[in-house]
Structure formats: structure tokens, C-alpha cells
Amino acid sequence: MSIDYSKFRDLSPFELKDTLISLASSKADRVMLNAGRGNPNFLATLPRAAFFLLGQYALSEARLSLSYLSPGLGGTVRISGIEARFDHFIESNKDKEEAALLGHALSYIRDQMGLPADTFLVEMVEGILGCYYPTPPRMLALSEKIVAQYVLREMVGGRVSLESTDLFATEGGTAAMAYVFHSLKQNNLIKKGDKVAIGMPIFSPYIEIPQLEEYGLEVVPVQADPSLDWQYPDSELEKLRDPAVKIFFCVNPSNPPSVKMNDESLEKIATIVKDRPDLMILTDDVYGTFADGFRSLYAVCPRNTILVYSFSKYFGATGWRLGVIGMHKDNALDASLAQLPADVKAAQAKRYASLTMEPENLKFIDRLVADSRAVALNHTAGLSTPQQVQMVLFSLFALMDHEGRYKATLKSVIRRREEALYHELGVAPAEDANAVDYYTLIDLEDTCRTLYGEDFAKWMLERASTGEILFRVADETGIVLLPGAGFGATRPSARASLANLNEVQYAAIGRSLRKMVDEYHAEFVKNKS
């Protein structure tokens, strides 16, 4: 029975994937290869091992108090002597690599960052035990400093002062996105009918959320050009000069092209911001740690930029739900709040009156925290403290990796997978110094032109318009790829993650795709004769 594939055309890529998975897994004698999923199949083991060992130390600290009442009961942490007790614990576990990491971490905190070792240990022990509400709710005090040092090193390369940045720890990048959209609306920084510029192609929720009824924003696409190695042409970035465009959303490096914004684009946007100091920017930089010499928009437009970073991909920690929102302490959003009409400011003052005697002076990032818990529950807001401890250990692991071995290994793994796929497909992957290669966009037109010429490429583009190809791939080969169109790509293409399968499986994907192209070409030749 033939399938009318066109009926699936308007689904988002993540709705579409369920249909593709169903087709790909429909044959019992075949292994499904889901290359549509961005969840990596690698993870950082050493900082996790350090987390579990730290938990054992924390329990020993808790058992120093009240344990006489019951074998299963402990008490609050004793600050006095904690550093000596920790040193003894590390020495008694010196044969374990994770103990060495914890010992080096304390040395780094004390000797490199100049933070009090005993205060840090108390924060980590109480944090991993989860025995207190997160205090402050936005982020634990020393945890914020440590994570900020890691994030700013990776995202801005020291171009923004550590002391100038506030962080809000969130349940991954997903929560960060939801919180930002919600608070922008609650604080009248965006309203229905406002224009939002979106750097495309992009992670599809950034396209879908602004068009929801509660936001009702008008999307202005800022299209990256595949002929320019997926950079934004100046003509597209000029759209940001329109005063009706309130905010610019982008993922950098991009998803799915997986290319970081080049220096020319960064400087172009910085120039526009000088002329438009009210322009807000939201940049999702989750893939920045896979890039060489990465610079976030937060590096060049810190006052205007909301920085979102997630630990999910680089550390293989999607299940941990670890992310942060970063904002400059002197930022354009707070300035815009101060310039709102008096009646709007009065309504906001009423909304946040339970938090402070001067609600009109409450910073946007602190409004984010309050709004995340319906304001009234602000006193119990915040990311769980064990999650914050794991975030700290991930950060310290990366900060102390002076030779960059972990990063180099991940980049090598991903790029070998890319080479395997394209080698079997029979085309060369794009050479681009700005490419991160976490994902790849397999361009239908370019692939067909390279393999069999211009006429065949044009014929295949007509077939692509029916929505047939990705469904045939899933049904006949068991391979799941997502359509580039669902991410705002303007050319027929398929997104494949290079992070979630093994090298031999990517080679199998390349072979299967090449076999299908060859079959289409045979049909093309037959129709011509």
C-alpha cells in the first residue's frame, strides 16, 4: 500500500520523528539506526565518579552528629576541622582517580580562585546531601563563581569579567528557554505582535514557541546561507536594525548546520547593537564547547545578551538537566525595565512586592527566578543542590584539564564519525574552520549533483517536494534522519546527529543512503530512455 507522505509535511521534526521511528523499526530482522536524536552516546565518567565519592564523604560528615539516636540518622555539617577531615578522606582513597580529582579541585579552589576551602567544602557537602533549600535561590554562592569561570572561559575567552556576570542555575537549557520566554512576556519586554528575529536554521522550538497564542510574536527569519558556509549574509543581519524587532534568537554554533558564527558576523551584530542599544539577544551556546576558538555573542554584546549554556551535550548529561542563564550585571534589559510606562511599572511592582521593599529595582535575572516559581514560591526556588554540585564538578574537571584531552577526544570522535558517513556516501564533507560537526546537514541537491550531475539533482528536487525520501529511507533502511525544513532550512536536506551512534553505524548510514541514491538514479535513467 502506497503512503501519502505529503500529509506529514507540516509536522515539526520532533513530531515527525515518531512516524519515522515507527517505519524504521517495523521490520523485526533489522536494527534501527536513529541518527535524528541529539543525545550523545558518550559521557564524562571521572566527574561523575568524583560526585559519588564526594557523596560518601558527605555522609561521613553527616554521621558525626546525632548518629547516637539511630544508625540511620545524621546531623548538620560541622565547619570546624572540615578541611583536615577532607584531606584525610582523600588520602585514604588515594588509589582512586576520582579522589585525586577531588583533591586537585580543592587545591584549584583555594590556590587558583582564592576561595575559602572550608566554605567550599561545606557548600559541596550540604549541597550533595540536599539537606537545605538552594540558598540563594538563583544559585549557590561559590558554585556560581566556579561555574561562571568555566562558562566564561569557554564562551567568551576572558573577554568579560567574571565579577560582571550573574548566573541562574536551571533544569537544563530547556528550562532556561521556557523561563526566559515567560519572564520577557511577564515584564512587558515582548508583547503580542512584536517582531522576533530568529537565526535560521535553528532548533525548532525557537521557531514554534514565539508563535504560540500566549506570545503571538511575528517571526522575522534571519537566514544563514549554505553557499557562505552557513554564515549570515550582511543583508540578513541588517534586519536587526528594524526597531520593530525586539529580540534576536540564535543557536551558536547552529543546530542543525553545526557551524559557529564567524568573527565578521559577531562584529556586524555588535555594530548594529551600538546603533540599537535596546535590542535584546538570546543566544543558546550549548555546542560552543565543541568548537575551536569559540566566541559567544555575549563576548561582543554582553549588555544586550542573555546567554544560555547547558552541560547536556559536552558532558553527556541530558538526564541531569543542568544549565545556566548568564546576564551582565549592567544590562540592557534592566535599563528597558526602568523605562517602561508608569502604569506597567506599578503592575510589576505589585507582582514582585512580596520579594523586596523596592520591587521596581529587582533585576531581570532575579525576576526570572521568581517567575519560575510563580513568584509566591520564590523562597523555595532554585535548581536542586545535588544538581548544582554535579555542575560544579563538571566545571572543575574542564577547568583543570589544562592539556584539553577531554575536548580533543570528543572532537576527534565526532569528526571520525562524519568522515565514515560521507566516505560511504561518496561525497566529501564540507571543509570549514567554523564547523563543529555535532550535527551534519546532508544537502540533497549538492549530494545528487556531486554523484550524478545537474539534471539528476533537479529531478531529485522534484521528488523531494513530495516528502517521500526520508520516509523511504526509514522504511527501507531502518535509518531515522530529520528534515532540515523543520529547522528552518530553505533547501531539501536531512539532519543527522554525529553524536549518538558509533563509527561503524555511521558508515552503514552512508552506504544505505548511497544505495538509495543509486536506485533513484537508475529510475531517473530509465525514465529518460
Automatic annotation (TrEMBL):
<dbReference type="GO" id="GO:0047688">
    <property type="term" value="F:aspartate 4-decarboxylase activity"/>
</dbReference>
<dbReference type="InterPro" id="IPR004838">
    <property type="entry name" value="NHTrfase_class1_PyrdxlP-BS"/>
</dbReference>
<protein>
    <recommendedName>
        <fullName>Aminotransferase</fullName>
        <ecNumber>2.6.1.-</ecNumber>
    </recommendedName>
</protein>
<dbReference type="GO" id="GO:0006531">
    <property type="term" value="P:aspartate metabolic process"/>
</dbReference>
<comment type="similarity">
    <text>Belongs to the class-I pyridoxal-phosphate-dependent aminotransferase family.</text>
</comment>
<dbReference type="Pfam" id="PF00155">
    <property type="entry name" value="Aminotran_1_2"/>
</dbReference>
<keyword id="KW-0808">Transferase</keyword>
<dbReference type="GO" id="GO:0030170">
    <property type="term" value="F:pyridoxal phosphate binding"/>
</dbReference>
<dbReference type="InterPro" id="IPR015422">
    <property type="entry name" value="PyrdxlP-dep_Trfase_small"/>
</dbReference>
<dbReference type="InterPro" id="IPR004839">
    <property type="entry name" value="Aminotransferase_I/II_large"/>
</dbReference>
<feature type="domain" description="Aminotransferase class I/classII large">
    <location>
        <begin position="142"/>
        <end position="506"/>
    </location>
</feature>
<dbReference type="InterPro" id="IPR050596">
    <property type="entry name" value="AspAT/PAT-like"/>
</dbReference>
<dbReference type="InterPro" id="IPR015421">
    <property type="entry name" value="PyrdxlP-dep_Trfase_major"/>
</dbReference>
<keyword id="KW-0032">Aminotransferase</keyword>
<dbReference type="InterPro" id="IPR015424">
    <property type="entry name" value="PyrdxlP-dep_Trfase"/>
</dbReference>
<dbReference type="GO" id="GO:0004069">
    <property type="term" value="F:L-aspartate:2-oxoglutarate aminotransferase activity"/>
</dbReference>
<dbReference type="InterPro" id="IPR022518">
    <property type="entry name" value="Aspartate_4-decarboxylase"/>
</dbReference>
<keyword id="KW-0663">Pyridoxal phosphate</keyword>
